[in-house]
Write a structure and sequence with these properties.
Layout (H helix, E strand, L loop, with lengths): L1 H42 L4 H13 L9 H11 L5 H20 L12 H17 L2 E20 L2 E18 L2 E22 L45 E10 L7
Antiparallel strand pairs: 1-2, 2-3, 3-4
Helix pairs in contact: 1-2
Length: 262
């Protein structure tokens, strides 16, 4: 009798352990079936990890859409600036963005193309300085511009801004020596870039491929305004520059899940 009393607790313990094991196995099987079912419905494969990898690859090859407000804003732009050539500036915007990437990758602001502001040149120089300080280089490969649209337009007085939104595909990564330190050299990156084209009365004058700031003819110092009559550095008289009006590219910003300044 004593023997039976001793055995019964162990039997109960073993039964409980067996029940727990069975329950775990059943739950695991149900979870596995549920995951496979979910993966099949969502990703088209029973392998969740493989499905997520496949989905990520498909996303990396799917161009991002851009906000298309061209049909809304272009008539307003033409009304305000009858001479505005949309097809010309669309082409210039693409060329400018590609040259922006080229200038950063090759660490040479002189590679910037089209009409651009000194602010853009300073941004490129700043990015190059940052890369040099880190001992890194930026790489942009296989760049494709899938779409370009006017996304915003604003006019205030004599000044106006047209923002082109561009859907861009590329390999985008940074290197330190021969090692990739940020981004991926094997996965494509899809993003949207906004390129701002500005216009204004008494704007600085821009030349082809170079930002020509107004300078004092005596000492060469930059003038703060086209309306300047006297150089604030050397005091020499300066002929007033009137009605200098020009379109130029003034800013580049990226829209992405991990937004960066360049």
């Amino acid at each position: 009798m004593e023997h039976i009393k001793t055995v019964i607790p162990w039997v109960i313990i073993i039964a409980v352990i067996a029940a727990i094991i069975i329950a775990v196995v059943v739950i695991k099987r149900r979870v596995t079936r549920a995951v496979r079912s979910f993966s099949n419905e969502l990703l088209g494969t029973s392998d969740l990890i493989g499905g997520l990898t496949k989905a990520n690859e498909e996303m990396s090859r799917t161009p991002r859409s851009v906000q298309s407000m061209t049909s809304v804003y272009l008539p307003q732009i033409i009304r305000d600036f009858p001479e505005f050539d949309y097809e010309l500036y669309e082409t210039k915007a693409k060329s400018f963005l590609l040259s922006y990437f080229d200038a950063i990758e090759n660490k040479d602001p002189a590679l910037l193309k089209e009409e651009y502001s000194p602010a853009i040149q300073n941004v490129v120089k700043s990015v190059i300085g940052e890369l040099d300080s880190l001992g890194e280089s930026q790489v942009y490969d296989n760049i494709i511009i899938h779409d370009i649209q006017i996304s915003r337009y604003n006019k205030s007085g004599d000044a106006a801004t047209v923002v082109f939104g561009m859907s861009v595909e590329k390999y985008d990564y940074r290197l330190s020596g021969s090692n990739t330190v940020k981004g991926s050299s094997t996965n494509l990156r899809q993003s949207v870039y906004n390129v701002s084209l500005v216009f204004g009365q008494n704007a600085e004058k821009f030349g082809d491929g170079d930002a020509l700031m107004m300078n004092c003819p005596n000492c060469g110092a930059p003038l703060s305004s086209a309306m300047s009559r006297v150089c604030e550095y050397c005091g020499s008289p300066v002929a007033e520059i009137k009605n200098t009006r020009a379109w130029c590219f003034d800013a580049v910003t990226e829209q992405s899940n991990s937004k960066r300044g360049y």
